[in-house]
Structure formats: structure tokens, C-alpha cells
């Protein structure tokens, strides 16, 4: 089971909390930009869940992939050869971007962000003319991680062979391609990833 959604606009990282005194206590609150962005993420995710027909919250260990696209500055635009997508190597930090997303999805797609056992964050400068946005994919792990007795490198060549065949053969459907990918991962000893690939295989069949 997995869900994808896109939130248009420049990605907003988790800001530093603001502190103020309330009686004898000190209270911490989110800065307004972070609070608004988390609310937007929650709204878009809720709509995506409804459109996908997913009832209830995700249970158990989850994986998350985040692509954060920042706008290409107008000063770097080129007329003849538009700038392609590039790596983003400035602030905000990747972990603060992930914090905004994870907090926004808590109680919307899952119970608590402690369920995230795998997190991938990629920062990019969008291709010239493309708008800034953040793409999020959340997926569920179906079985616990299995540690093979043999090393990962033993099956790496077989893995790439299966993946190459599955994703370059034009006559194969997406289900068969996912099946080849799962086979390669099994040969590599990555049974945890193979289970997810196999689940996608059956869902697209």
C-alpha cells in the first residue's frame, strides 16, 4: 500500500519554535510559516487519501520519500538551452524539510511519525520554467526486515540483470516489470524490498 501527493509552492522547512511565558510556564509554538505549511500538507494528504479510497491510518513500519523542488532563479534562466533540474545545496536543511512533512502527516496518514523507519529526502532546483513543489510518497512495509546469511554483493549482478530486463523490455506490462524487480531483489538477499515490489506487482496486475 502506498500513496503519493504533490503540494505546489516553495517548500517550507520546520522553523525554530517561538517561546513565550504563560503564567509560570514557558510555552513553545511553531512559527506561522511552519504552522501554515503543515496545515496545507495535511489538507492535500487528506484529499489524496480520500481519492485513493484508503480508510483509516497506516499501521506499522512505513517508508517515506520526499522530493523538494525549489524555484530556478530568473537570473539563471537561459534562452537557447533552458537549465535542467539541478541539485540544491543551500539551506533549508533536508532534515528540517522532512520535519515539516512528517509533522503535517501525523494523525492524517499515520498515527505518529515514529512509524517512519525509512526516510529519503532529495532537494532539487526545479528545471527552468517548472514551478516549485514538494512530492511525497508514503509506503507500507508488509514484513519485517530479513537479514540474509550471505552478503548483499553476492547477488548484485543478478539484481541488475533482472531490473534491466524488466524495465527495458517494451512488451512487458508494469506488473511483469515489478515482478522482475522483485526477483532480482530476492537474488540479492533484499527480501524486505522484494516483498514491497511483489505487492506492487499484484496491485498493478
Proportion of strand residues: 15-25%
Structural class label: alpha+beta
Order of helices and strands: EEEHEEHEEHHH
Distance between the termini: 14 Å
Q: Please tell me how large the radius of gyration is.
A: 20 Å
Contiguous low-pLDDT stretches (5 residues minimum) are 146-172
What does this structure look like?
By secondary structure, the protein is an alpha+beta fold. Helices cover 36% and strands 22% of the residues. The protein is built from 5 helices and 7 strands. The strands form 2 sheets. Strands 1-7-4-6-5 form a 5-stranded mixed β-sheet, with helices on one face. It has a two-stranded antiparallel sheet with strand order 2-3. The protein is globular, with a radius of gyration of 20 Å.
Amino acid at each position: 500500500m502506498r500513496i503519493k501527493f504533490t503540494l505546489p509552492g516553495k517548500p517550507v522547512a520546520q522553523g525554530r519554535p517561538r517561546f513565550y511565558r504563560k503564567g509560570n510556564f514557558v510555552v513553545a509554538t511553531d512559527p506561522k510559516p511552519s504552522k501554515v505549511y503543515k496545515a496545507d500538507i495535511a489538507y492535500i494528504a487528506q484529499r489524496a487519501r480520500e481519492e485513493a479510497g484508503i480508510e483509516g491510518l497506516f499501521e506499522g513500519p512505513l517508508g517515506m520519500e520526499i522530493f523538494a523542488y525549489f524555484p530556478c532563479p530568473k537570473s539563471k534562466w537561459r534562452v537557447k538551452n533552458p537549465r535542467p533540474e539541478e541539485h540544491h545545496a543551500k539551506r533549508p536543511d533536508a532534515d528540517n524539510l522532512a520535519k515539516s512533512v512528517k509533522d503535517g502527516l501525523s494523525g492524517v496518514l499515520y498515527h505518529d511519525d515514529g512509524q517512519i523507519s525509512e526516510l529519503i529526502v532529495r532537494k532539487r532546483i526545479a528545471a527552468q520554467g517548472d514551478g516549485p513543489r514538494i512530492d511525497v510518497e508514503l509506503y507500507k512495509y508488509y514484513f519485517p526486515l530479513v537479514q540474509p546469511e550471505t552478503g548483499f554483493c553476492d547477488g548484485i549482478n543478478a539484481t541488475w540483470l533482472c531490473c534491466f530486463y524488466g524495465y527495458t523490455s517494451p512488451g512487458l506490462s508494469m506488473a511483469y516489470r515489478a515482478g522482475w524487480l522483485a526477483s532480482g531483489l530476492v537474488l540479492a538477499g533484499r527480501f524486505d524490498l522484494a516483498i514491497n515490489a511483489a505487492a506492487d506487482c499484484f496491485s498493478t496486475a
